[in-house]
């Protein structure tokens, strides 16, 4: 594993050193992004402005000091639910398991396993993980895509390890 960071230096991730690493954006209104590919797997990490705005709205209500907030009402959970529609708009049909709360290098995050059809032109069925992570004032949208269920089973622990490593370099 090697450490990669985004062009602007705000996002870091560990990934297999033999895989291809690309990054760009982060200025001129273009979202900062990282794309990692290898072994029929694609990992996309991207800042998401509408998710950041949604997170601000979700946290605007605030809580009483020392009050325990139910997991499903945490701002990152609301943003994760909100971003599910992005996947549904590009994959039809799209199915996703219930979100799981995880602690990434970036902090309190959410992850869901999914499967969806990208269509004939875009490669057919996809299997993988969708995660939502905090990143300062932004939110990160992470999509890990495998070409088959077998590949997802094979690389499951590696993909989860990569997601857990995402945060400030």
Overview of this structure, please?
This protein is of the alpha+beta class. The chain has a single domain (2-61, 71-165), classed as 3-Layer(aba) Sandwich (Protein Transport Mog1p, Chain A). 26% of the residues lie in helices and 38% in strands. It contains 3 helices and 10 strands. It has helices spanning 49-59, 75-90, 149-165, and strands at 2-5, 12-15, 20-24, 33-38, 41-47, 94-96, 100-104, 107-117, 125-135, 138-146. Helix 1 runs antiparallel to helix 2. The model is unreliable at 51-60 (pLDDT under 50).
Question: Summed up, what is this model?
Answer:
The protein has helices at residues 49-59, 75-90, 149-165; strands spanning 2-5, 12-15, 20-24, 33-38, 41-47, 94-96, 100-104, 107-117, 125-135, 138-146. The chain is an alpha+beta fold and 169 residues long. α1 (49-59) runs antiparallel to α2.
Offer a few descriptive terms.
single chain, 169 residues, Protein Transport Mog1p, Chain A, eight-stranded antiparallel beta sheet, two-stranded antiparallel ribbon, 38% strand, PsbP C-terminal domain-containing protein
């Amino acid at each position: 594993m090697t450490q990669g960071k985004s062009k602007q230096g705000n996002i870091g991730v560990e990934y297999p050193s033999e895989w291809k690493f690309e990054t760009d954006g982060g200025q001129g209104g273009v979202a900062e992004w990282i794309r990692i590919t290898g072994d029929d797997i694609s990992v996309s990490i991207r800042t998401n402005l509408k998710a950041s705005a949604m997170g601000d709205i979700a946290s605007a209500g605030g809580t009483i000091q020392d009050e325990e907030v139910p997991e499903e009402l945490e701002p990152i959970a609301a943003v994760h639910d909100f971003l599910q529609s992005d996947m549904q708009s590009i994959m039809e049909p799209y199915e996703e398991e219930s979100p799981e709360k995880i602690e990434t290098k970036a902090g309190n995050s959410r992850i869901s396993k999914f499967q969806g059809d990208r269509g004939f032109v875009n490669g057919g069925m996809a299997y993988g993980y969708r995660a939502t992570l905090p990143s300062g004032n932004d939110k990160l949208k992470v999509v890990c895509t495998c070409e088959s269920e077998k590949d997802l089973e094979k690389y499951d622990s590696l993909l989860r390890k990569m997601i857990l490593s995402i945060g400030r370099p």
